[in-house]
Fold:
Amino acid sequence: MATFQFDLVGPERILYSGAVDAVQLPGSEGEMTVLPGHAPVLTTLKTGMLVITESPQQGKRVLVRGGFAEINATSLTVIAERATPVEELTPAIIDADIAAAELLYDATDDYDRKREIEGQIAQLREAKVALSF
Structure:
């Protein structure tokens, strides 16, 4: 199967760099799967699970919280505002993120911002359930 170069950069470190078969992204306009030969796209990311398929039956999951992705036919680069590999997540980390988002929600009167934060909280709760904490 054809592959493409994928780089995932978080604020503290490079979380992934290598050839992959596919990457599923939590795009701000909806979930999307990037495959080799993808049309050029620049998109923002919402809070959600990024799924890296390295080969059939082998992959990794990373919880991202915002950022953007640059896609072209031969590569994908994700610059994440925050990113944590699933194996590094704990219930306490997700609970702290939910509490921080709830504080932001309470601190704003901007309706659009409140809707955005509600989405982040929902995605974090879904991630917690999906990870069976």
Observations:
- The mean pLDDT is 92.
- The beta strands are 4-9, 14-20, 22-27, 30-34, 41-45, 48-55, 58-64, 67-71, 75-80, 83-85.
- The chain is about 30% helix and 45% strand.
